[in-house]
Amino acid sequence: MNIPEALDPTISRCAKQVYHHLGLPNRSKLLKKVMLPLEVKKMKTLMSLDNQELVNVVKSFIQSPSQDNSKKTIGDFIKLLDNCLTVYAIPDNEEEEEADNIMGEKDEFLDSGIDDDALIALTEKAVKRPPSYHVDMPQKRIKIADTLMTPPASPFDNFNEQEWGDYNILSSPPGQIKLFKDIPWLILYEIGRFVAIAKVPWREISFETFKVFFEVGNTNPPNLFETMIEWNQGRRGITKINGLSYTLMEKCPQSVWSFFQSSQENDYRAIRYSGYISCKSFNKPPTIFLTPPKLSASNRLFRKYGYDRFLELKIKDGHPSMIAKQQDFFLKPFLLMHRTFRFLFVKDDTIILFATEGPGLDPVSIQQVVDWHIPIMENWNMTISKFASRMSLGYSSSTPTVLFKTEQIQYVEDVFSGQQGEEETCMTDGCGIISYSVMKKIMEIQGSDELPCAIQGRVAGAKGIWIIDPKLDTEAEDFIQIRSSQNKFKTGLLQDNMDLDPLHYTLDLVKHTLCIYPSYLNTQFIQSLSAGGVPTRVFQDILIEYIQKITSAAVENRNLKIVRDWVAGVGCLMKNRWETEDKFEKCIWKDDMMDELEVDEYSEEFSSNDELESVASSTHTSSSTASTNSFNRVNEISGMPSSMHEMVVRMLDSGFDLSNGVVASRITRIFQNVIQQITTKYRIEVAQSCTVTCIPDPTGTLESSEVFLQLSSRRKDEKTGIRSGIILGDVVVTRNPCGLKSDVQKVKAIDCPELRMYTDVIVFPIKGKRSLASKLSGGDYDGDIVFCCWDERIVEPLQSSSPTYDSKRVNAAFSVDKTTVGQEVSRDRNNMEKIIQKNFISVVVPDGTLGVYENWRTILSEKKSLGDEDVLYLSQMCAKLVDAPKQGLRLKDTVRATDRNLYGKIPSPTWFADKRSRQKGKSYMEAKGGFKKQVEKPETTMDHLYLTLINQTETNIRSSVCMFRDEDISSRDKDLSAPWLNFKKRALDSNNKELRDDMELIESLVSKNYEDYCQQLTEFYDEKRRLADKANTYDSDLAAMELTNTYSIAFGLEEYITKQFSEVPFNLIKSSVLVYDIQVNSASLLQNIKASLAYILCSRARKNNKYCYVVAFDALRRIKADACTKRKESGAVAQTLVGSMYRALNIDRSWVRKINDSEGYDESENQIVRVSD
Question: 528 with 732: CB under 8 angstroms?
């Protein structure tokens, strides 16, 4: 016998109100029937979508008179419900017609005065009527096999796909629906991303499924990923879910959900939505793959319009030039979850889209966005190339700081040398002055206790560096001086309400000035310094010193604090930990780090010779397959971090040493990564060097050949040991790009009391014929960073050269687009927006040409010299190409073809060929059959450095898994094995059957979990290899995108396996000791026993097997830490710290220095591990 379901009180109350209003009190009896009447079913559906909407419909029906003043019927109420439901789902035509027939029958009975009992009988008959089906459907639709009274299972069954012909569909459900009302964009984006990646037809998603997704998204957002994955597996008929299911797509980072759930508003951070573009051919549309949102710094456009209105699409597989070739595609509007995104501008290899309209959004046109940031009419005479470049300034990551009044902004002129020339005679190009009081406010906003002396920022239409007023007047009011060279465009006009927008007059902090000490040489610096007279032996000595330094740190057994300090430094550990903290200024550190890493990136990206240009085209945007989002991820159940630097540090902090297979293998990988930086970029540390931001002397004290350099982190002179942060004596300065002898200059560093408030920057003079910055490959003071070296071995032999000027050949190689904004938009003012979009998408973007010319220059300079006419030409071409997009310069095709014939066939020196091969993942020497092959006749400095590098690193590079001796790596850690072995011994020795049963149960569960892990991981990598093979075939854009994104990491699989491992079988545990542990200690003893068994299973397989750490990282760390502590302090346990405190701790560098200086310092507990021969 079927039991009637209990109705929701709201539905029951509303139904009774309607019946009472219609004079049908006996119809309330139907509410207790198994088969509910039609109007109640529709009320249930509507309530599942929008509770308040149901109440509104009932009120409207009761309070509104009928249209023809006739008596209202139950059919009128049902039609009102249908009208509301059509907003959510368009009913099928035949089904609607059938429903109308039934309503007509019932209306006739109602009008003829039929009694309620007869009406009830008729309604029940209608409910039981079988459904109708379509035979010939005019559109491709799927009929849902359900009763007539049940609305379509999906709101998207009836949809004409032709309606979307003018759109690019990223992931958007069809029809005009109300289903997404009031749903946060992050939830909708994640659902849309899931549907696109899983290739789920929208019609297969029911109302109930959406309701579940929305409820999880609103109540427990981090679980939305798992909910969608499990639903998808069920949809596909897969009853058993395993870890491979979670590799379908990358999970949204926890940091994003935490920010999303935070009730505190701030303008400092934002959720950034993005995707990748695969575009190898202009004969077919590009493929777009949505990526997980990430947390980043905000920017001016985000703060104006909201970060959820922007979508970034980055060329991942293809060439940036394809953007212009595919402009018809990119200029079409994009649909994503009912939001319409339109092309805004291009920034390097990334297209920025803006949501002009959509549910919950106020319509804003592309022209309105452009006019707000850089008004078209006010910048009428600006060239279109500069206009496009200035548009992207509003997208620079920044932190809003001080809001200025208009009278506090002072526009001042630059200082010029008075000599003939252009930009090179401007002695203050890009640098202004800011008051002490403003700097103090910036310090307070950032929560810092150190007053910055210089910052890089944006305000109104100005950009560049601002340095603190040298007067240090603490009583002066707020002011900021903007020099003419800083003022890039006009903005900040009156808004519609006749007020100024405060966002335009807020100083946006882009980053602090950069200081890296000690710093590094690179290929360009080495070639230029060598050409300037520095002997080859000097570079060899410095290289050997650096390799010995990192080798000794990596294999240090005497004290693991040294190893830990080295790993933390190499991995930028504290900066990456800061990324996870809930602080607004976090992204400033990241920007600093990325700038430092990318200083000379352009010159190292490309191949050369015959395949140079094809390689440049295919590798322009290549990067590690690991997502940046995954770098700081931590397995939330086991505690294992995805960063190997963080993993090693946490294990060392817990008492593990180099005898542990996982620690040893990770140390090897970290060491090899550092060596890779040397072998591919010749990134060699020089102790007496730094990389800092250059600024002009605001006091006019320095003479033309003098500089002032003071470092806060330099505690003593590297040579004498005397405490001093000020550098004195001759100094070499240069910057990237560095292709000419004159790009390296020797100057004198002096102490200048008037400039001592400027720390961690280098102050250049404003005296002389031209600015010192301009001598360094045409630099200026708007944020340029300079390499400074005071190592006497480099400084003394160097002979500076006078700067050269661009030759006529270089100037003739480019065509110049001088078209102004006014000239473009005047052609058709009625279509101003489209004209601006077409010009933005057609501007010159960095396309790899710079890298091609730099490689030609590098190779030719090895064959000839930096003074050779052709080398000079290529060097000047590189300098010109750096700013070509902004200047509207386009390299002529004839010049490119001629230069390719002249320089593209020159054979590469061995060191360069090896560097190129290593960038592809395999060394040239390995490809040629071994490391012993030597350069036949080493002639240049780079040849000798290459041989030195091979001799110094050959052994460690060849050790692919572990560079330590296998016999020194422990096969079994007694501390980690003890919990399981002790438990097993007690269970076997006792007469307690329940304890033995529990032992067997635990062994069975953990062994099964380990087998699942191995099997699923094997399947994962098999699929990854399959996609890699497919990606190498023709026409394989989709496979390449899936390989890059879906199968980039196994993190999702590992989290699933960990979840299965950590589950406690409450109903199966029988022994009193474990039952008590579960009830009182949250199963901590049980988890330790399982962790120990997992370790034993791993140790039987391989010494560096990481399964046990994947599933029980923190548990094993606790076991090890307690065991190590007990050996030193009987009965004691390890120190206990909460995560937030631990992440903020690091070893004091003074400890490391004292350990290094103390020859007798030893930790005898550490097992000695030797490097392989």
Answer: no
